[in-house]
């Protein structure tokens, strides 16, 4: 363009039309356009967005490192993925593959349709999205979180359309301290990170684990009142050992075996240091790491960072709350937990955290404290090799790997490797907890034998996810116990009508705990998340059970407003932190509690919660203020 009209254009308009010649891969030259956008702004521009078509050099030039998955897909490869969905949508494909574990677990094709609808709303209007989620929390939580999120994680590469969160891959080593600045928010209150190595009960899903980080933070916003611009979902792409992903042309992560050992922790160290450099006060939640890394990373970072591991601590706190709720259903006080015999089936990170958290609660419950050794006597723990006793040959491995699970080993060496049924016959447990991911392992014989020996109503918690991995169903538990069971599961089951009575099938889901626990720690700036703070969150949840809940044998306050649940738990967490001498970085929260007690602190907490309402917007041009 030239001539009089060109001369009349302002300088900025001329600059938009300039182009330069750039050398492309293969030695060819092509005219390159000059853009005035970087980072998220260019990704959100429909004209200049390339999806995963940006080259490595473009990602650095345009500050896109970490904002998109590490792979590169050209235009034709991207068209192929879209055409797959165009020809046969995901809901249809799901319906035609009933053997898929997620579909078999009860996630219906219509759940996938609903997930897609909600994703499209979130993409274009987050205020509308979170307003809908808050108003329909009980119905929508299973869509954006478990169990439907398992499908979203498993199919992440196929349904990926636009970035949400950050990707840290092995290609980013040495660059993380700078790439965190590609995220356009100077204030981040909470990060949820996973390495995708053990997503729900589905195993290694690699980069697809980002879906669980996104789902968790959606609940942080809806349930905990976090601001959607002050949260950051992350995935660490350190490879995958899943053969299906390694052979899938559409997989968006690195196609190489997972790194391990010291190399893995050097990578993790760099990631953690980069987060703290950019956001010194951020709360970091670890999610769905395989057992050995979940436990070791918690031990490695819990003193230096404000962080917790939801699989170990959040799940454990929720199970503890469920046990307190079950005791309340039985008409017993919380300290009666020390008189219960507890059988835990499973020995991974979640089971280890559950055992340790319950034991810690036992040692601190009641008027007189008891020792760790005395508290351990009420526990029986089985793994894939059966009952763990002091006769176990690899007991030192358990001690090193499974967060000192060896301290729960039974003295009855002759019962080493005993089956669950044999343990039930010998131990006569009051509580049975399943974290095995082995469907149906709580057989009718096991449950009926347990029921026969229980004076109080038996407490049955099959907690493995998704539903297809549950150790038993709610109906099976009630039939086997003649309708006496107090039941809570990891994935949702319908209430059971037995002999004309409706018995609650509670969901022991950590969505009850982690938003409030995280809110208390992040808002209070508690410096760390202690075991006592976790226990206090569990106790606080039980305080909200109603008479109607107890009459139905509900162990969790399902119908209590979820934001009020989080507010109550956050208050209890901050109170506990102060009582044990942990420094509170938020002076206002401290002063409110000291001057006006819990009511004043709760009022302050509510005032800091973000609410999804339309607010007046005012344009401020660049350079005229913040």
Mean pLDDT across every amino acid position? 88
* Largest sheet, spatial ordering of strands: 10-9-8-11-12-13-16
Find the structural class using helix and strand composition: alpha/beta
Could you tell me the strand content as a percent range? 5-15%
Known CATH architecture of the largest domain: 3-Layer(aba) Sandwich
What can you tell me about this protein's structure?
It is a single chain. Helices cover 45% and strands 10% of the residues. Helix 26 (531-542) crosses helix 28 (562-579). The protein has four domains: 1-34, no CATH class; 75-289, Rossmann fold (3-Layer(aba) Sandwich); 314-508, 3-Layer(aba) Sandwich (Rossmann fold), CATH 3.40.50; 514-608, no CATH class. It is built from 29 helices and 16 strands. Residues 398-402 have low confidence and may be disordered.
